[in-house]
Automatic annotation (TrEMBL):
Protein name according to UniProt: Peptidase S49 domain-containing protein
Gene Ontology cellular component annotations, sorted alphabetically: chloroplast thylakoid membrane
Active site residues of this protein: K210 (proton donor/acceptor), S409 (nucleophile)
GO molecular function annotation: serine-type endopeptidase activity
Keywords: Hydrolase, Membrane, Protease, Serine protease
Family: Belongs to the peptidase S49 family.
Amino acid sequence: MASSIEIMESNLTTSKNQEEKCELKPELADYGSLKDDGDYPSGEFEFKKPGAWKSFVVKLRMLTVYPLQRVRKGSVLNIKLRGKITDQVKGRFSSGLSLPQICENLIKAAYDPRISGVYLHIETLKCGWAKIEETRRHILDFRKSGKFIVGYAPVWHEKEYYIACACEELYAPPSAYFSLYGLTAQASFLGGVLEKVGVEPQVERIGKYKSFGDRLTRKNISEENREVLTTLVDNIYGNWVNTVSQSKGKKKEDIERFINEGVYQVEKLKEDGWITDIKYEDEVTSMLKKKLGIVEKKKLPLVAYKKYSRVRKWSLGLTGGKDQIAVIRASGSISRVGGSFFEPNSGIIAEKFIEKIRKVRESKRYKAVIIRIDSPGGDVLASDLMWREISLLAESKPVIASMVDVSASGGYYMAMAAQSIVSENLTLTGSIGVVSAKFNFGKLYERIGFNKETISKGQFADLYASHRPFRPDEEKLFAESAQNMYKRFRDKAAASRSMSVEKMEEIAQGRLWTGDDAASKGLVDAIGGFSRAVAIAKHKAKIPQHKKVRLVEVSKQSLSLPQILFRMMTSATGLHQLHDGFTSGDGVQARMDDGIMFQGSEGSLLAVADPILNLLKDYLNFV
């Protein structure tokens, strides 16, 4: 049974009640991805200072909480933004950063009278731009409380600075590793490698922009793929320049000039106003003590992100509301059935997801549903089965699809069943197309002296034989099957978006879009994050925007004790299992190109990995 917990819904409003709002600095008005989309409410956070009675009730509640949930008065919330950020709500024994909990902690801290401010330690992040945008937005939301938020960044590049520049103050050590040199996109190709080892990939891709099969068959980039990647880089770079220029009060031309100068001296960053000052961490700590009136000999009262995640919203008076909205999170590659006992949560498992959807549909508790999607796609059949269940759910109650970093191909297949689709402006979405492939290992088998003989009955029984290429009649069947699957996908997308098939064909063809472009093409309804999805869900359910609702998670990770112990062992020993590769070889794929890498100037991966390269390496090592 899916476990459920309550998460916080911040104060949302579509009105601009200036009497209740704090006076804002100019940069706080820069929301970037919260845009006006006609009749949809914005979901913008509005900080409301608690009255005397509510403050009194909160103080009483704080006296009754468990010791582990107690926080010293005058504490500073310390969040270390480093490494991977997921969109899943983490359990007590889970490690790593959770986007929902980062955002929740910042809103709790804004209202918590025990928290004086926030100290962000920022280093290299491994996530997409949508999560970066959501995090940045909540930093700006926190600043509306009037409390300080200070950033310290010893290692940072474009993504990290995008978050850091939203802080009130930003510091870096004299030896900081930083680079602001621009953005790149890379596409890898295995055609030459496979040719040399004697492997012939036979790929059927539908859609001229569907580049997933290109890296298996080509040795260089196609013009269509180059067109898409150029557009994506232009959009991401343009958004970065616009946001940073507004935040720092600089002209766009000055930002671009700085990037093209190739600055490497930290002193230049301070001189040009990119950071507040150059300080070591102990100096920043001393500065915070002085700000809080703490003598130098005493320790700065920091409360860690993980500990603060235990603080109940009830104790801060942030819960309430009888109306409930279900939140279902779907992250990773799509497959029909789960993996082994020790890997129960490897991506989106259709059969488990469908169970949750059906339970929510049958329940009368929920007024609306938000489905958070962060997926590059996967198995077409699994995507279609989930699409059907989401469609049935949408017939009984409002369903809002909220996209995170990626909601492409099979991920978009899921989203298009919802009544409204919300994405961040740099979410990667669309990629309406399919690809199917088989590998002919005939030449490789010959080189290593391996032989395979098959006995079959039926003209196409040996269709996926690995020791020979397709016959002409098999190739025709293979192509027609993939074409039929694409037409189903495209036609359903057209119907869900109220478009003609001809119009959908123009924007489909396997092309990947950023959220902004997808909205202009009609693939997305509104631009924004989770808070906007909540506001739209309330609107669709006819719940007044000023009224609080209870958001109920139905996708929290739930591991048994043996699974927890196994994960601890693999983490300690460095053992990992290879999963979420290309396919199991038994189905057509609706998947975004996993071989595309969006890189910042540091050269680290910003989007998705390349499982096929790992799979090939392991195979050749075995041979």
